[in-house]
């Protein structure tokens, strides 16, 4: 793993293990269909194949897109996913791409 990616991931919630961080990164890469290192609304919709309504999509971006850019960076996604795990909630990410 590149040191820059590792450093980026280490700044996420401290409670996340290295294995969890790798899983979060893999989830992000699965969403990032055009490989521009950002997730946009169309990519989220495509991954959920229509099973995510407009309200849920909007809430996801409110929760994750901290810089309000309209896209989600790897850091934003990792921070969000790590916070779900460390917050005492289910370790299952509700916004993980369906398999």
TrEMBL record:
Pfam families per UniProt: EF-hand_7 (PF13499)
CDD domains named in the record: EFh
A single MF term (Gene Ontology): calcium ion binding
SUPFAM superfamilies tied to this protein: EF-hand
Alphabetic keyword roster: Signal
SMART domains given in the database record: EFh (SM00054)
Organism superkingdom: Eukaryota
Signal peptide limits: 1-15
Domain EF-hand, chain residue ranges per copy: 52-87
Protein's name according to its UniProt entry: EF-hand domain-containing protein
Organism: Effrenium voratum
């Amino acid at each position: 793993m590149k040191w820059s990616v590792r450093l980026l991931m280490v700044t996420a919630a401290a409670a996340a293990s290295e294995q969890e961080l790798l899983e979060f990164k893999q989830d992000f890469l699965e969403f990032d269909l055009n490989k521009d290192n950002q997730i946009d609304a169309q990519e989220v919709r495509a991954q959920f194949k229509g099973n995510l309504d407009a309200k849920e999509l909007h809430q996801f971006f409110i929760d994750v897109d901290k810089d309000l850019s309209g896209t989600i960076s790897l850091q934003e996604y990792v921070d969000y996913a790590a916070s779900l795990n460390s917050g005492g909630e289910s370790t299952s990410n509700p916004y993980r791409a369906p398999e």
